[in-house]
UniProtKB/TrEMBL annotation:
Segments passing through the bilayer: 33-58, 78-96, 102-121, 133-154, 160-180, 192-214, 226-243, 252-269, 275-298, 310-330
Membrane topology: Multi-pass membrane protein
Localization: Cell membrane
The protein's name in its UniProt record: Sulfate exporter family transporter
InterPro entries: UPF0324_pro (IPR018383)
Recorded superkingdom: Bacteria
Family from the record: Belongs to the UPF0324 family.
Keyword terms, alphabetized: Cell membrane, Membrane, Transmembrane, Transmembrane helix
């Protein structure tokens, strides 16, 4: 589903929540050795995106992440290049068809989530900035939407951190929960890909869950999610109008253009197919490492910082959009 506003650096959870080691370990070599060993495992065929995320979470909660600044810095960039690489494995004609099927879902779910978020935020007596940030993160693409809208709102650092931590925790849950639910309900590849793109916040978790389900699900989910991410632009501009902010600048996410370019090359330039296979494989490894970095960035302190009310809002919005979209998909 990675800022100055100029748009966020990616569609992944931009880990504004500092990933300080969960426990201060007197022997720095131990966290580094464990980090290196787990990272090396993530580059093997036995690792998968959910496994990589789980390993990162275990690292964060035990010896801690010894390189929080580096993982935070490279998470966004690695996801961007991974998404572009995945484009070399996709067909433009199939992507257009998938995009047509998802456009109505996208518009309805974004509008509905923002309205529901506003009403629920007032009911919970949350501040408007936090409410709007969590609503935008749920409606569009998680951390990227929050990173884009936050400067428009002139949100404080703590408001940004709370919103990012909320959607990130739910992203981790979705990555593990969605594939088993899809199999239990016998969802087709097309159905599951559409559901992922609508109901999971960040591109990293969308791609990870869809990749675990199947190749067609991955193609559908990636295409629709990236099209969905473009809604950052009108939503950010709309936020500036509603909250009466001025001098707002929003830029197109460059990595989405790169994904489109890679997909067009794969479709219309057969000479790129051989190198494209290698690039797709590298992109999948990159995605696995990205999710390891994301997991390593979620310390217990970050989870506790969310608080009950913002987390309640995030869970409410996520459950509603997941259940409603699933019902409509299965009905259709």
């Amino acid at each position: 589903m990675k800022s100055t506003l100029p748009l966020p650096r990616s569609s992944a959870p931009t880990l504004a929540v500092d990933s300080a080691p969960a426990t201060a370990h007197p022997n720095l070599w131990l966290p580094r050795v464990v980090f290196a060993a787990l990272l090396a495992f993530c580059l093997t065929p036995w690792a998968s995106p959910p496994v990589a995320l789980a390993l990162g979470l275990v690292l964060a909660q035990t010896v801690g992440n010894p390189f929080p600044a580096l993982t935070k810095k490279y998470t966004a960039k690695l996801l961007q290049f991974s998404v572009i690489g995945l484009g070399f494995g996709m067909n433009a004609h199939a992507a257009v068809q998938a995009g047509r099927q998802g456009i109505l879902f996208t518009v309805a779910s974004i509008a509905g989530t923002l309205v529901l978020g506003y009403v629920a935020g007032r009911w919970l007596k949350l501040g408007r900035p936090v409410t709007h940030l969590i609503s935008c993160g749920t409606a569009i693409c998680g951390g990227s939407a929050i990173a884009a809208v936050g400067p428009v709102l002139r949100a404080r650092d703590e408001e940004m951190s709370v919103a990012l931590a909320t959607v990130f925790v739910l992203n981790a849950l979705a990555l593990f929960a969605f594939p088993p639910i899809g199999h239990a309900l016998s969802l087709s590849q097309q159905q599951f890909g559409l559901w992922c793109a609508i109901a999971i916040h960040d591109t990293s978790s969308v791609v990870g869950a869809a990749a675990a389900y199947g190749k067609e699900a991955l193609e559908v989910a990636t295409t629709i999610k990236l099209a969905r991410a473009l809604w950052i632009i009108p939503v950010a501009l709309g936020t500036a109008v509603v909250f009466k902010q001025q001098d707002v600048k929003v830029k197109l996410p460059w990595f989405i253009l790169g994904f489109i370019g890679a997909m067009l090359l794969n479709t219309y330039v057969p000479a790129t197919h051989t190198v494209g296979l290698w690039l797709v494989q590298a992109a999948r490894l990159g995605l696995t490492v990205t999710l390891f970095f994301i997991g390593a960035g979620l310390s217990w302190q970050a989870v506790k910082s969310v608080g009950p009310k913002p987390f309640t809002l995030g869970v409410l919005l996520w459950v509603v959009i997941s259940c409603v979209s699933l019902y409509v998909i299965m009905l259709g």
